[in-house]
Amino acid sequence: MLKLEKGHYTIGGIPVEDLCAKYDTPLYVYDTGTMESQYNLLKNSFVGTNIKIKFACKALNNINVMRFFKNIGSGLDTVSIQEVWTGIKAGFDPKDIIYTPNCVSMEEIDLAVKEGVQINIDNLSILEQFGNKYGSTVPVCLRINPHIMAGGNSNISVGHIDSKFGISIYQMRHVERVIKSEKIHVNGLHMHTGSDILDVDVFMRAADILFETTEHFPELEFIDFGSGFKVPYKSDDYYTDIKEVGEKLSKKFGEFCKSYGRELELWFEPGKFLVSQSGTFFAKVNVIKQTTATVFIGIDSGMNHLIRPMFYNSYHHITNISNPNGTQRIYTVVGYICETDTFGWDRKLAEVREGDVIAFHNAGAYGFTMASNYNSRFRPAEVMIHKGKDYLIRQRENMDDLLRNQIEIPELT
Predict the structure, then answer these.
(1) What is the mean pLDDT of residues 355-365?
(2) 338 is catalytic
(3) Assigned architecture for domain 101-268
(4) Per annotation, catalytic residue among 57, 103, 141, 338
(5) What is the 3-state secondary structure (H, E, C) of the chain?
(6) Could you tell me which CATH class the domain 2-29+276-403 is placed in?
(7) What's the pLDDT tens digit per position in 228-266?
């Protein structure tokens, strides 16, 4: 996490100016110390439960990040066969990987079955096909849609009645018929209502719904509450009180296990919660452009590298790394893409000069993983800070990377 120490910004004790000079900009930097702190906070908040944490790698899919979480005891949450394959290459035991796809083909699910990971099914059509093919030989988890509207943005609210995710709780009679007919072994129930959830009661309502649903499934081994924990993006921002969630849900889960007749595992699949605050994105100021109404900071990056502000209207705190003690002025920070890619309107920053480096905080989740080559721009490098040392974990792209999979037609050359 970015810190101001003796007039200079550091990450994990390493001066940011040195990192940007060594690896150039734009640049993603991740601090494993912050990742581990978040992991331990979540794990230690659920006292008296058999908690299992599965890192949602869609948030930050670098293989080194996956390995780090494996090494501190985490499992893996995946949403594609490619993430499954990367997780296995990272060293995860397939039994510690849950695969929760959406709207994929049965052929892809077959590939995941072949790898031996935990299958999570979220629609009746695939459930029928799966049962017809595998019967009771391959256990499955069911993703339930609880019809709860929760999440910080409509694009990340996934548990409501109009969502494409999950099997409706009102379809349980149909589910029962399919399971009985095909002799399907259901070993888990899953629910994810959305991301950036503030209200602890949302998790309590979800728990009540899941616990009620278990009466249809006598062979459960775990219950998976997904995630959705919000982290602060501003100094005065609201965030999910993990300790309160842990205290209330642990008690409720313990009571449920007694009534169910045995202790089940309690699963969570955090992504943003584990890595968002660990990541900082650095960019260099190309130009200060003053118009009749606005002073723009134009940087050497854009929505091709960090799309969240444009896609989700998300806030990322911005800091001038090069001039931390400068006079505070008002700027609008924009990118170099041939569209309106605005990172922040009317932000108060220490005076910015052309050539300065600015930092975007909370950039560890859904930053690089959503990056693209739009406008034929190269994707940036990634660096990991681990135990006081910096490691290049993805090199910056070049023209060879951009053209590698394109095939030239001889007649046109």
Answers:
(1) 98
(2) yes
(3) Alpha-Beta Barrel (3.20)
(4) 338
(5) CEEEECCEEEECCEEHHHHHHHHCCCEEEEEHHHHHHHHHHHHHCCCCCEEEEEEECCCCCCHHHHHHHHHCCCEEEECCHHHHHHHHHCCCCHHHEEECCCCCCHHHHHHHHHHCCEEEECCHHHHHHHHHHHCCCCCEEEEEECCCCCCCCHHHECCCCCCCCCEEHHHHHHHHHHHHHHCCCEEEEECCCECCECCHHHHHHHHHHHHHHHHHCCCCCEEECCCCECCCCCCCCCCCCHHHHHHHHHHHHHHHHHHHCCCCEEEECCCHHHHHHHEEEEEEEEEEEECCCCEEEEECCCCCCCCHHHHCCCCCCEEECCCCCCCEEEEEEECCCCCCCEEEEEEEEECCCCCCEEEECCCCCCCHHHCCCHHHCCCCEEEEEECCEEEEEECCCCHHHHHCCCCCCHHHC
(6) mainly beta
(7) 888 999 888 888 889 999 999 999 999 999 999 999 999
